[in-house]
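To assess whether ligand presence alters the predicted conformation, the chain was also submitted together with beta-D-glucopyranose. Input:
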Amino acid sequence: MTIDLTNRRALVTGSSSGLGRAIALALAKAGAQVGIHYHTEQDAAGAVVAEIRSQGGKAQAFGGDISDAGTVQQLFTELDAAFGGLEILVNNAGMDGRPALCADSDPKTWGKTIAVDLLGPYYCARQALARMLPKKRGVIVQITSVHEFIPWSGYSAYTTAKAGLSMFTKTLAQEVAGSGIRVLAVAPGAIRTPINANVWKNPQGLQDLDRKVAMGRMGEPEEIGQVVAFLASDLASYVTGTTLPVDGGMLLYPDFRHGG
Ligand code: BGC
């Protein structure tokens, strides 16, 4: 059994680096034509496109700020011109914001985090649905986080956005299940990407992080990419409206191994 995404057109937001890049590579490897969306990192997006093409795959870069509805509309118009349609949307782009306790937080940063992590996926999903509903076919995968479940001091905007994205996933899945469209979420745990480099590049930080994971290690971006490719494929044709944690057991409360 192989994951086959040939003849599928996909857009992965925030795929110039980190998880998005790994997801885009995995979808392309399975045969999909992939839109590499970036906000500011045009060169890095170009490098991902080049990497996919060098492996015989099809990809093109698309730029824009997903927290702006008009920009998202423009982005999808460009995608229509280049791809002529869309079967897979991966809402991956996100930010965790500058850590600050709620009492000390800056409303502007809080609002921006919600705009990128929650409004952005909503704007993109709306545009994707306009293309998927008439065809009665499509898959939307939202990249949430274990922090849709686990509170995280200093990151109230991020956890709120991710929990919101989870309920958006369920509600949307319910709305479109009868129209041939599946909507899912993947909740990564601690994956080695630029977003948490400040932690894993520090030996003490890495040790502390590894202790929070039942499997005792961070995940690699490819371990998220392959799961997203599977969920986007027909191998997962009966899966919708749920979150799949891919976290090496971070949600297993590993500290309780030592007694409660
Ligand atoms: C965050 C990472 C963090 C992980 C586990 C993710 O959502 O982006 O920085 O390491 O959750 O706490």
